Amino acid sequence: MILHSGGTIGMLPGPDGLTPATGAVERAVDMLAPEGVRATVHVFEPLVDSAEMGPAHWNRMIDAIAGFRGTGVIVAHGTDTMAYTGAALSQALAGIDLPVVLCGSMHPLNTGGDAEGNLAVAIEAAQRAAPGVWLAFAGRLLPAAGLVKHDSRGADAFRSVPQPPIPTPLRTRRFASRRLAILTLSPGLPAGAVDAVLDKLDGAVLRVFGAGTVMSDPGLECVLAAAIARGCRIRAVSQCESGGLMPGTYAAGAALWRAGVENGGAETPEAALVRLWIELSDAPRRGD
Predict the structure, then answer these.
(1) What burial letters (b/e) apply to 168-203, b meaning 16+ CB within 10 Å?
(2) 3-class DSSP state for residue 249?
(3) Could you tell me if 170 and 89 are in contact, meaning their C-beta atoms sit under 8 angstroms apart?
(4) 32 membership: H or E segment, kind and range
(5) How high is the pLDDT of residue 165?
(6) What is the DSSP string of 98-112?
(7) How do the domains of the chain map onto residue ranges?
(8) Cα(102)–Cα(122) distance, rounded to whole angstroms?
């Protein structure tokens, strides 16, 4: 099964630049699929630029995949939010018994770029890869749970950071309407600004420095503790791509753990956000 959600791979030029269009992915699958391989194509209506991708779209994908009884699934998707969808499907479908292969490109089909090659890798992987959620890109198959888009233009745009194992067997999860965001600490960020944002959220991923440090601002610790006390989940991850957090290593990080911030360890920001979203979706929200 091919789920065509949108993205550069199936775009055509328009008056304001590239826009999602139907037909290109479907024709390419017909040309690239080996003889005897039958593919059913489901096209999102309307197609979605990946900048618009979110929990409602993840739920549509999960519903389609959960009801599929074939060999494998390909999800054609834009690259800008590929890491979020990779984390979402990896966690929501943990334990699935077939390969789910995300596929996108830096250039549209029929332009001499990387699209046809990536789609060919995805078609092969959907038939032969191990069960789980993957990304087919730049001639490689990457685990999708910890994707990082590290290049906005180059064809080899993704890396995959190893993530903690996700419990199995399969218990298909879905995403409820919740208010979450990723916040990045930076030198001089006022505690009041963090407070104003957290006041509007059910949960947040906090990107902190290095192995888990923050600025020595008593006001920031009070803001974090107050937000957690009123029910806002806050999960810390490192601003570094690899290595993760090590609570207790530096005194400059003690304020996080005193306030009750959760340790995201080696999770990517996208994976930490998805984890919070799933856990908050499973739990009733105050006022629900």
Answers:
(1) eeeeebebbebebebbebeeeeebeebbeebeebbb
(2) coil
(3) no
(4) helix 24-32
(5) 87
(6) SEEEEE--SS-TTTT
(7) 2-160, 180-282
(8) 7
Report the 10 Å Cβ neighbour count for 59: 17
Q: What is the pTM of this model?
A: 0.95
CA 145 – CA 282 distance, rounded (Å): 20
Beta strands 132-137; 140-143: pairing state: antiparallel
SS (H, E, C) 170-228: CCCCCCCCCCEEEEECCCCCCHHHHHHHHCCCCEEEEEEECCCECCCCHHHHHHHHHHH
Whole-number Å distance between alpha carbons of 80 and 6: 11
Domain 180-282 CATH (choose: 1.20.1250.20, 1.10.10.10, 3.20.20.70, 3.40.50.40): 3.40.50.40
Contact residues for 257 (Cβ-Cβ < 8 A; gap 6+): 247, 248, 263
Listed ranges 16-25, 42-51, 213-222, 277-286; the one with the highest mean pLDDT: 213-222
Position of tokens 């999770």? 267
pLDDT digits (tens, 9 = 90+) for 157-179: 999 999 988 877 778 999 999 99
Answer yes or no: is pLDDT of 31 > 80.
yes
Average pLDDT over residues 111-133: 96
| Res 155: pLDDT | 95
Strand extents, DSSP E, the chain: 2-4, 11-14, 17-20, 41-43, 73-76, 99-103, 132-137, 140-143, 147-149, 158-160, 180-184, 203-208, 233-238, 262-263
Backbone dihedral angles phi then psi of residue 174, each to the nearest 5 degrees: -135, 165
> Are 2-160 and 180-282 in the same CATH fold?
yes
How far is the C-alpha of 173 from the C-alpha of 231, rounded, in Å? 22
Fold for 2-160, please state it: Rossmann fold (3.40.50)
Three-class secondary structure of residue 113 per DSSP = coil
What angle separates helix 82-92 from helix 269-282, to the nearest 10 degrees? 40
